[in-house]
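Quick note —
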Amino acid sequence: MYTTASAGAPVASFSVEPSSGHAPLTVSFKDTSTGFPTAWAWYFGDEDYQLTQWVGQNGSAPWNGRFGHSSVALPDGSIVLMGGGGGYKNDVWRSMDQGVTWTQQNGSAGWAGREFHTSVTLPDGSIVLMGGYNGAYLRDVWRTADQGVTWTRQNASAPWPARAKHTSVALPDGSIILMGGFNSTYMNDIWKSDDQGVTWTCINPHGTWSARYGMSSVVLPDGRIALVGGMYYSSAERYSRDLWISDNAGLTWTLQSYPPGQSWTPRRYHTSVALADGSILIIGGECSGYLNDVVHLVKEGTPWSVRKYLLPLDQGRYHHSSAVLPDGSVILSGGQTPGGIKNDVWRFPTANKEKNPRHVYKAAGTYSVTLQVFNEDGSNTTRKGSNITVIPELPAPEPVGIDPGVGQNTGKINIINLSGANFDTINTPSVRLNRTGHPDILASNVTTPSSSRITCTFDLAEQPAGFWDVAVENPDGKTGVLGQGFCITQGPPTASFVGSPISGNTPHKVSFTDTSTGFPTSWRWTFGDGGTSEERSPSHSYTVAGTYTVALTVQNEGGTDALIRTGYITVTAARPPVITSFAPAKMVHGKTVNVAIIGKYFQTGATAKLVWGAVTIPVKIKTLTPPSKIAGSVTIPAPARGKYSLVVTNPDGGTCTRANVITIT
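Predicted structure written out below.
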């Protein structure tokens, strides 16, 4: 694991879940960085840019077409482009939006116009520009601390020989390394400055690599320097494709290797960038013609693997410039193409920009993951080596048996052996019971002691009886099914009910709701007043005051259960009726007389009658307007004579009697 940082920048950190499993393996990455990053660049370790397209940022930038210029990325993500050929330019331009728009910082910087110079960005954000050619080879050094607006000459005549087509890098400690180049002589000397280019020390007059020009160099995330390609002389000029690494700031170098059968076209006048994951992109160049490829060098063990992609529009170019931004975007600017000298700008995205991405690893292997985070103060990178382990793909799981294979729908059951083959033992499979028309029953406490055995728990409470399929799904999405493999049997029901309202005045109507569990198929209610029902959720009216016990008996194929709620319903008698007036008070036998009774507390369903001893004459009620009016008629029998009482009776049993108030003659 390595971490790099800029002062004031956020601190990168992340977690993964899962970190191992069978291919294809889906991994969730979670950003745990501190310091308020505003953007993210993820490298998952299996990057392949075959389908990645170059994006045209500007087809004709406001700066003139040029070649042999330089460009750098600043910590804030902006790009500064300087000088170049096609007229020995010394203008400086800056883009804050990845090359879409440009602002001229200085139309004629203090340094002389030139081409084939180099420039680097130091950790403090300043830029140092070195050497080049403008009809003569140059050895001056210049610095800007305000994004190219103003420049200070650090050294008018550096101790290294004047040169062009050299290469230089800035190290994390702020030192500058300048290497090789050409001034009618091929060079392989290496110089170092620890004070922003003011003074220089030759740390190696002849590097291990052959003297050359037109090569490129980058600083890898771990601080090592990589030098790539160029033109050297060995009985004749020759193009190279060698890769050299220095782990001691350029003092000594080690030649790297490529896997057998992997190679790339040797070249000069290309550019290269180091990505946050430690890989290198070599862009374009010249080898007896324009090269239109992008070579991706990835460190895999001892050798560096080689992958190849295409330049924009499949058009070769050289003498261009390139820079990599904190979000992983590679910006290519200008250069020479078969169509002429260019002032176009292109962007090549290399990283995933989500905060918390998901990634699918399709091939077995061990992968290192890199996260670079940044904000306006700078960027920070962390890399975890061998962070993800992907094991070869499993065939689909094959469940063949389950023990026990039967369970009652009254609670949980522990499965001690779901047997079969190809169960994932690294990341837990999901197990479920499946039946058409019903929700799946998902297992809990799933373990895979081996690829042929699963243990788990099913909660069968309240699940429908019958045969269910047993499905096993590995984390890769492959599923195997044991058809009709498990039987849920019916347990006895558990009786339960509620009534509402459970108290009130007569006549009192209660709605009863069955809340029994266990799938009862029949119901038997007793309401405590002699009433019964076999409905599932009946209603019942209580007409007499009292306290009533309610019982429910439920049954299914698994058995019977009963619930008795003693004193569950309380019914209070309503106020009895009151007769305040009536008419007529005199009636004639053998006649039918209309009567009107006025009073209070008459209930719907109340009755009225005339009473004399054992003789009762009913009143036929035509209209009853609770609580105060009754209208009806009474037919007086021919034998009737004497004083009769008027009686009104409510359905709840409440009665009012006005004694001897009606005279029949």
